[in-house]
């Protein structure tokens, strides 16, 4: 579902069952994979990629060339203080982002689950 007030850049791809909220702006050449949500009043910079089943809540600003792995979750920002992700950040699958990421090029990798095999 794509809101009528959303703006989608040239060459961007939106996968099946994705939701794009009102007043959302998507840059050129972005990928939003299946079953992902990009909430109201959010922005996705050019050439960024959102993996499957990612939930970006409202008032989140994501920079250019950002990669977000499957299942990541972003807390809400606010109109006065959006949650911001700098350019060229890589966020691993399953991360829960609760605060802004100010430094460009940072890699956020979740602590892996440990599975014992006997």
Structural summary, described in words:
- There is one protein chain.
- The protein has 118 residues and is mainly β.
- 0% of the residues lie in helices and 29% in strands.
- It contains no helices and 16 strands.
- It has strands at 7-8, 13-14, 19-20, 25-26, 31-32, 37-38, 43-44, 49-50, 55-56, 60-62, 67-68, 73-74, 83-85, 90-91, 96-97, 107-108.
- A 6-stranded parallel beta sheet has the order 2-5-8-11-14-16, with no helix packed on it.
- The protein is globular.
- The termini are far apart.
- The model has no long low-confidence stretch (mean pLDDT 93).
Keywords:
118 residues; mainly beta; 5-stranded parallel beta sheet; 16 strands; globular
The topology string of helices and strands comes to: EEEEEEEEEEEEEEEE
Multimeric status of the protein: single chain
Give the helix/strand class: mainly beta
Largest sheet, in brief, is: 6 strands, parallel
Distance between the termini: 45 Å
Number of helices: 0
Order of strands across the main sheet: 2-5-8-11-14-16
Task: Extract low-pLDDT stretches.
Answer: none
Radius of gyration: 14 Å
Helix percentage range:
under 10%
Mean pLDDT reading: 93
The share of residues in extended strands comes to 25-35%
Number of strands: 16
> Which term fits the overall shape?
globular
